[in-house]
């Protein structure tokens, strides 16, 4: 079967019940129940050289990578511990709202600034220098998220102090991505106040929120836990 820009592979038991799903697009993503499902996917004719990232439950990624790594490019990074967090209504922090913050969905008038900050964040993930400009594809994807109403930002006295956006959604949850404060805007409590307010608003639309984070990112983990997120699982990622 196909979804998005790539095929989905299914693993079924003897009775035809689906036991695992693998999406083979730019990101190769797992949802599996057993090691046998991972082994079946590792034997499938996957995209391989065009894959940008392999991501999923930590044990599944570890097993898949051990069996199928010869079909992929050499990775630029391996994130072996990425805690998964969830937030449900009633668990959001009750911190007092900040009246000095302008928190709202972004507009296309803000596209260039927000896309550049998102690109700076992405570069920092891999230890690369911050880019001077944003490539066309990255800018276009950011514009699509803004147009869909999924990109949020906070300003104080007109200055950008925080941004994040809604990525994948399902009937059960919405995934928060791109959580970022420009370096010069940190240390004032803006991110905590803005993120809490944004999450509270999003939970009026979605039954829960979710995200995952690199295990070494202690500052981000502290933000999420202050907001009310609880750890529910662990991912790993192979990044090309």
Class from helix and strand fractions: alpha+beta
Annotated CATH homologous superfamily of the largest domain: Gcn5-related N-acetyltransferase (GNAT)
Radius of gyration: 19 Å
Number of domains: 2
Provide the CATH topology of the largest domain: Aminopeptidase
- Please state the average pLDDT score: 92
* Measured distance between first and last alpha carbons: 25 Å
Number of helices: 6
**What's the β-strand tally?**
12
Q: Give me the strand/helix succession.
A: EEEEHEHEEHHEEEHEHE
CATH class of the largest domain: Alpha Beta
Biggest β-sheet description? 12 strands, mixed
CATH architecture of the largest domain, by name, is: 3-Layer(aba) Sandwich
Low-confidence stretches: none
Helicity level, as a percent range?
25-40%
Strand content: 25-35%
- What overall form do the CA principal axes indicate? globular
Q: How are the strands of the biggest sheet laid out side by side?
A: 1-2-3-4-5-12-6-11-10-9-8-7
């Amino acid at each position: 079967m196909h979804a998005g820009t790539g095929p989905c592979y299914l693993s079924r038991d003897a009775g035809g019940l689906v036991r695992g799903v693998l999406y083979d697009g730019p990101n190769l993503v797992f949802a599996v129940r057993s090691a046998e499902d991972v082994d079946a996917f590792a034997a499938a004719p996957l995209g391989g050289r065009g894959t940008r990232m392999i991501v999923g439950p930590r044990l599944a990624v570890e097993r898949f990578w051990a069996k199928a790594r010869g079909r992929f490019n050499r990775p630029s990074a391996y994130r072996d511990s990425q805690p998964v967090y969830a937030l449900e209504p009633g668990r959001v922090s009750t911190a007092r709202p900040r009246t000095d913050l302008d928190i709202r969905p972004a507009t296309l008038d803000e596209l260039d600034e927000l896309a550049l900050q998102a690109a700076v964040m992405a570069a920092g993930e891999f230890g690369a220098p911050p880019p001077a400009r944003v490539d066309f594809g990255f800018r276009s994807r950011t514009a699509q998220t803004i147009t869909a109403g999924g990109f949020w930002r906070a300003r104080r006295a007109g200055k950008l102090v925080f941004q994040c956006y809604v990525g994948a959604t399902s009937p059960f949850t919405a995934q928060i991505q791109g959580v970022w404060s420009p370096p010069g805007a940190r240390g004032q409590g803006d991110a905590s106040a803005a993120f809490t307010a944004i999450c509270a608003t999003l939970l009026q639309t979605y039954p829960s929120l979710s995200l995952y984070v690199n295990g070494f990112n202690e500052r981000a983990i502290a933000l999420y836990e202050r907001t009310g997120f609880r750890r529910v699982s662990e991912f790993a990622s192979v990044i090309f």
